[in-house]
Amino acid sequence: MSKKTESETGVSRRGLLQQVGFAGAAVAVSGCNIAPATPGEARVVATPRREALETLNAAEAETLEAIVARLIPTDENGPGATEARAAHYIDRALAGPLRNLRGAYAAGLSALDDYASGAKGAAFAKLNAADQDAVLTDMEKDVATGFAPNAATFFNLLRTHTIEGTFSDPYYGGNADFVGWNLIAYPGLRMGVTADDQRMSAKPAPNRQSAYDDPMFGPMFGRDGGGHGH
Amino acid sequence: MATNLAKTDVIIVGLGAAGGVAALPLTRAGLDVTGIEAGAWLTGRDFPPDELRNNVRGWPQSVQKANNEIPTHRPNASAPYSQRPAFHPMMNAVGGTSLHYWAQSWRLNPWDFKVASETARRYGAARIPKGSTVEDWPFGLEELEPYYDLVEHEVGVSGQAGNIAGKIDPRGNVFEGPRKRGYPMPPLRGTEFTERMAGAARTLGWQAFPGPAAINSQTYEGRPGCFYHGYCSRGGCPVHAKNSTAVSTIPKAQATGRLKIVTQAIVTSVEVDQRTGRITGVTYVKGGETYTQPADVVLLAGYTYENVRLLLLSKSRAFPNGLSNNAGQVGRHYFSHFQSMSVSALFPFDLNNWYGLPAQGIAVDNWADDNFDHAGLDFIGGGNLWVYSDRRPIQAANMNTFDKAPSWGAGWKAFIKQNSDRWNTAYIQKTTLPYEDNVLDLDPVEKDSLGFPVIRITADFKDNERKIGAYTQDKMAQWFMEAGASEVDRLPAGAMGPSTHAYGGTRMGDNARTNVVNRFGFSHEVPNLGVLGASTMGTSGARNPTLTVQALAWRTAEHLAKNWSSITNS
Fold first, then answer.
1. Would you tell me how many other CB atoms lie within 10 Å of the CB of residue B192?
2. Which chain B residues are within 8 Å of A100, Cβ to Cβ?
3. Domain that holds residue A178
4. Angle ∠(B272,B278,B284) on CA atoms, nearest 5
């Protein structure tokens, strides 16, 4: 990686993020990611060194990143879908279990940019937040035109997958640093839940683990040298 | 060309909740049984606590035989087809859907066996809803009681009895019929929230009690008690605290040395001797090869849709409209439990429903069956009200916003941050009747992966069900408000598409003109063909069907073993 500073290259960090599209680009730039593990605590999370756009092209990824950032925004209530890396989750899902929806995303993202350009004068990712919200509202209300079968169907797909990418087990590439589970104060996976844990006033300490951190469900292949976990 | 296999005594098609039970009394009686199962053996490792995988993406159904044969649905013969669901409601495996079901293991109440005669006696025959084909069962609860008892103990059911030999225990369901003895395990524990609901019910003058479940509340037959981790719904149990047949009756049957299990095999037809009209065996496909398995007796133990489909697909000269269908009853008297029209509630405090399971709850039966006077009402039957502790993150984020927040953006985010653990949705199972025009047949267009037609459901809920829905919604809303809810939302009725509680299609009854199987579960037309499963049930009651299915399966198997010579004509 270049040792040159931002001022030397003239490439802003924000600009680089926009080019790459995913919030994960922050990792590539900074080399490590300081994330709160539990409230009041910080730890260094290992850098994922290799990462691909598995199916989306760069422009699609940029648009998608901008969409999820409005659906579950980063605000005074904490990190949102950007930090959860919901768009990364969607890219992986569209290359795998949701591959039958890849075409719907290609068509939908294209229609979205066309509609944004017509209604607001620029591609979606270039709009300010208020204009982006107006475009998404038009889609939700199904008054945005140019979508097949319609804008509301694609909006619902985006919303469904953004929620999955924010609140699912982090194994699937979203819910990074458990920002989704932290948002709703889900206490986390426990393989033994006591009666006290189920009291209404109980606030079990958040247990921030993937199901696949448990050796029972963990790596099946190459278990001895897997380098799994964090 | 099919490979002919050596003859066996009994073939069970499908080793799930029903077939997995029937195998035990048959093998214990010394009969050789071959179980032909479309799925595989699964292990605890197959059941990680993973909401996306289990509840959203529908593993394992998404990769199984069942998913190639999702029934089509239309509300009536002239209505457009509904959108087909992404996943079949049931799964294939040794143990079948008993691996990942909710495991609520109810006995039916006495009224459920006598809906027609009791309605006529108490309110007049005119109160039977127009168009309903409901009949009394050929026997009452007392006939099935010993088999309920056997299954509760052999499978392992936890619960609180409410009526032991006529002695009422208010800790249990005071409306249940008499039972010989209590459950082999105490009920699953309650939570502070379910206890709060129970207290509210008692304030209203209603009986509240924990429900029965095929889930260990303590170590049972070497399997551990439930650890309440919250991933039981649509997930199997990694430690086998959920008593699927795969960990209970099937291993016991295997221990006899008389149960042969063929996995990942798809039965495509039941074979008939055209001269005698008797079953000779089945044909199945495994690994691309076709096999013929001869047997003296065949028991169909697939799910309702598959039992009906196999009969309709097994056409022959003797049975030109499908096996055991010369009276035209296969596919008739179909219904699926009316479970929509539920109620969601929002509370002004956290409930801590993050852990638990659908079977960890509290029931009210006051508004079920004929437990209340219907004289001034315009419907018969009712609903069991059930409130339980169960919540996962994606489900929580998708919560009902009670018209208090937008569906996305900062306002939505703030709302779910505050309220994701403050809502609860009741489970209300309602009496659902069979009707003349609610039927199953073969879809004229859609095929499975082998090219055979899938089942077509033509069915809609009728006025009687919708009236029960509105009535029980009012009761449920009252209950939630009494417990401190700030908002309730009455949820709409859903469509009558593919269901986990599908009944009828091969109904049981003494009248061969209106029923496919006799009182022991054997075909009126084909003496050595039996049918297991809710496809034989003529009424639903207001509670989950599986324990009744299993009691009936045991009874059919026992009848076969005791009457082997007459049934096999040998």
1. 16
2. none
3. 53-214
4. 40
Mean of per-residue pLDDT scores for chain B:
97
Nearest CA of chain A to the CA of B306: how many Å? 27
The model's pLDDT over B112-166, given as tens digits with 9 standing for 90+, comes to: 999 999 999 999 999 999 999 999 999 999 999 999 999 999 999 999 999 999 9
Q: Alpha-carbon distance B387 to B366, whole Å?
A: 14
Q: Is A169 at the interface with chain B, CB within 8 A?
A: yes
Size of chain A in residues: 230
Q: How many domains does chain A have?
A: 1
**Does B453 sit behind a cis peptide bond, omega within 30 degrees of 0 on the bond before it?**
no
Given a cut of 90, whether residue A2 has pLDDT beyond it is no
What's the rounded Cα separation, in Å, for the pair B328 and B323? 10
Helix, strand, or coil (residue B173) = coil
Q: Cα separation of B204 and B478, whole Å?
A: 9
Sign, Cα dihedral of B499, B149, B186, B161: positive
Two tokens at B183? 């459950």
Tell me the chain A residues in contact with residue B394 when contact means C-beta distances shorter than 8 Å.
163-164, 167-168
Q: Residue B314 is encoded by which pair of tokens?
A: 């097994």
CB B55 within 8 A of CB B62: no
Q: Looking at the 3D structure of chain B, how many domains does it have?
A: 1
**For residues A102-123, average pLDDT:** 98
pLDDT at A149 over 80: yes
CA B156 – CA B412 distance, rounded (Å): 44
Say whether pLDDT at A225 is over 90.
no
3-state SS class at A131: helix
Question: Is A199 domain-assigned?
Answer: yes
SS3 B99: helix
CATH of the domain at B371: 3.50.50.60
Residue in B191, B394, B409 nearest the CB of A163: B394
Q: Has residue A19 been placed in a domain?
A: no
β B453-458/B439-447 pair status: antiparallel
pLDDT at A5: 39
CA–CA distances in Å: residue B346 to residues A205, B357, B385? 24, 20, 17
Instruction: Judge whether residue B49 has pLDDT over 50.
Output: yes
pTM > 0.90: yes or no: yes
Distance separating alpha carbons of residues B318 and B326, to the nearest angstrom: 9
Which percentage of chain B shows pLDDT scores above 70? 100
Give yes or no for residue A1 having a pLDDT over 50.
Answer: no
Q: Are B514 and B132 in contact (CB under 8 A)?
A: no
Looking at per-residue pLDDT, the higher value among A25 and B295 belongs to B295
Rounded Cα gap, residues B292 and B235, in angstroms: 34
Residue A210 in any domain: the answer is yes
8 Å CB contact between B293 and B282: yes
Structural domain including B99 reads 3-568
Task: Give the DSSP letter of residue A178.
Answer: G
DSSP state of B302: S
Residue B378, classified by CB atoms within 10 Å of its CB into exposed (0-12), middle (13-18) or buried (19+), is: exposed
Residues of B in contact with A202 (CB under 8 A): 352
